[in-house]
Amino acid sequence: MRFFSVLNGLLLAGSAVAQSSGSCSPQSSDAEVVEYAWAIQSLLEGFYSNQPLNQTFFSGATNSSRAEYAQNLRGIQRQNRLGVRAIQQVASKVPGFSSPSCSFSFPSSSSGEEYVKNALRLESDASSALLGATGYTQSPEVSFILARLAAQHTADATWLATQQSGVVFPSNSSSLLPAYNPQYVLGTGDQPGRLGQFLGDCVTAPSSPCGQPFFIGPLVGSVGNRSSAALGPGPSSSGSASASFSPSASLSPTSAAVSPTAAAKRLFSS
């Protein structure tokens, strides 16, 4: 009797572990956000593959004598290819995932200088887009790859920014790294974070998590709580007030997730 009691306990424990593991696996609800990330990552990979990356092309770019643009950008190209491969591996576990059929367009680059500025824009926009997308999944595997790719694009954008600007991290910034929700990212225009003009209509914005809007503010994100997301930085260590964040109409689930101040916009700007 004791044997069957122990066996029954082990079976119940195993069932609980299996259920717990299953609940953390990618779900069909993750298909949209993975397709969205796949499109963004593929756009970046295509941008670097669309232009021969040789030193002659970059000879007239800012700091070309010390930046080693050709070699470093080929390395960034390699990272983007690995990013596409990583998304494909995660996508293979997502029920209902379908590889988007995209016809990308790329910003025009008639010179090495212009190409570097466009690379900076795309890398920083991809970082902001993928950061915002982390709030649209409850799967650890999906959120991990989104965060990892966002970190990679942030590193790439930081290096590019240091070649273009003397001040990359302004001391009076009132926001963490910009993050934008998918509906804003898929829109068109020249505003920071917009990628719709390059992605076309190959993907749609993922559904809001938990059935409620996901608001992103200057410091945190919040499911369904606009006021919580709108909280900005408090007084600085010197006692003077930091630049305040105004929870305007821009803080909505259908527009810019965060409206950076002029200081925050300088981060990764060309």
Task: Provide an overview of this structure.
There is one protein chain. This protein has a single domain, classed as Ferritin. 49% of the residues lie in helices and 2% in strands. It has helices spanning 2-24, 31-49, 64-67, 69-91, 112-133, 140-164, 182-185, 196-199, 226-230, 262-265, and strands spanning 214-216, 221-223. Strands 1-2 form a two-stranded antiparallel ribbon. With 270 residues, it is mostly helical. Helix 2 (31-49) packs antiparallel against helix 4 and helix 4 (69-91) runs antiparallel to helix 6. The protein contains 10 helices and 2 strands; from the N terminus they run H-H-H-H-H-H-H-H-E-E-H-H. The N and C termini lie far apart (74 Å). This is Ferritin-like domain-containing protein. Residues 227-264 have a biased composition (Low complexity). Residues 1-18 form the signal peptide. Residues 227-270 are annotated as: Disordered.
Please give the share of residues in helix.
40-55%
User: Number of DSSP strands?
Assistant: 2
| Strand order in the largest sheet | 1-2
Number of helices, counting only DSSP H or I runs of 4 residues or more: 10
Write out the CATH superfamily name.
Answer: Ferritin, core subunit, four-helix bundle
Percent strand: under 5%
Distance between the termini: 74 Å
Radius of gyration computed on alpha carbons = 21 Å
Low-pLDDT windows of residues = 10-20, 236-270
The helix-strand sequence is HHHHHHHHEEHH
Brief summary of the model shown:
It is globular and about 50 Å long.
